[in-house]
């Protein structure tokens, strides 16, 4: 067995973070609301708003918190239905449940994007909100989704945890819906260990989210631009603690400048491996949609002609033995992206299309820092393992 290729460690944090982190360590000024203005977190919010081209950003401790606050800020009635894709991470149905709402899952296609006909059918009058997860950075058709949500006046939240830097018709993902949520957890394009951001152009929603994130008493005065709404909501909302610390913000800030390069390099890496995999008759990497310019830091592909789970599992095992980690989402134990493992929500019985896809959908991390030789190795191992398993099966047939 070969030693595993490391696909989990990240790029070093840019050296530009060090003076600010040092200063914070020396001063002990870690709480965002200690100084009146100009804390690291406030500066990050301003810089992120400018980068995304939005009016307001709220820095929080995770994308999960951002999703939860987004649902709370919309002011949904308890028990409201929230449409989510059946292929997403457990954090999404969890946020819905924590917000006292009911997740309704919509099937996705073999290209990992939401099924639009089913989405339209399920977008009924009693749906209070929609969360579209651009899962693993695969963008669903946002023209159709935005139009349907607007026509039916249903607030649209974008879960852009994996989509920082992706564009749709040139517009940044996360700015198409009413609220966008991002993650800075270590396996994302910006890495601060943990962290998240909520963006919107809606002052009322942002004032509510900011107060609930933990801007108690008059700390909201340190957030510019929403004063009227803040004073309206004073003392009327429950307060959670989901704030970001200054250290986290100091680590995120210099990485905003790295996003364009990371996106470009990540896409080149992804497309290089995709081409090699697509040359195999046993593997298929779904193409991106025409209006989508992706920012991938992982690759997903489907096994073709693998009729039995045993063959698919043999493939997964062989790749692992050669030092590359491939997870077949539906066949890896307790995978948090397989909806049947979300035992905390009531199960739906119409999700067979998504389940079938997940039973053959493979997931491989491709962090931007990988070199061409790593990419060649990963692709060769995957192609070889598929050939070996299918070759063996064909001979046995
Ligand atoms: C699609 C998706 N949404 C949301 C999240 C939650 O992000 P965080 O870990 O920042 O809470 C994740 C985490 O990986 C994710 O994959």
Quick summary of this structure?
By secondary structure, the protein is α/β, with parallel strands linked by helices.
Task: Report on this structure.
With 397 residues, this protein is α/β, with parallel strands linked by helices. It has 2 domains: 17-256, Type I PLP-dependent aspartate aminotransferase-like (Major domain) (Aspartate Aminotransferase, domain 2), CATH 3.40.640.10; 259-396, Aspartate Aminotransferase, domain 1 (Alpha-Beta Complex). 39% of the residues lie in helices and 14% in strands. It contains 13 helices and 14 strands. It has helices at residues 17-27, 40-52, 63-74, 91-98, 116-122, 142-151, 203-214, 227-233, 246-256, 259-278, 309-321, 352-358, 372-396; strands at 56-60, 81-85, 102-106, 127-133, 156-159, 167-168, 171-172, 179-183, 196-200, 283-284, 292-293, 298-303, 327-328, 361-365. The strands form 3 sheets. Strands 1-9-8-5-4-2-3 form a 7-stranded mixed sheet, sandwiched between helices. Strand 4, helix 6 and strand 5 form a beta-alpha-beta unit. Helix 3 crosses helix 7 (203-214) and helix 11 (309-321) runs antiparallel to helix 13. It is globular, with a radius of gyration of 22 Å. The two termini are 28 Å apart. The mean pLDDT is 96. The structure holds pyridoxal-5'-phosphate.
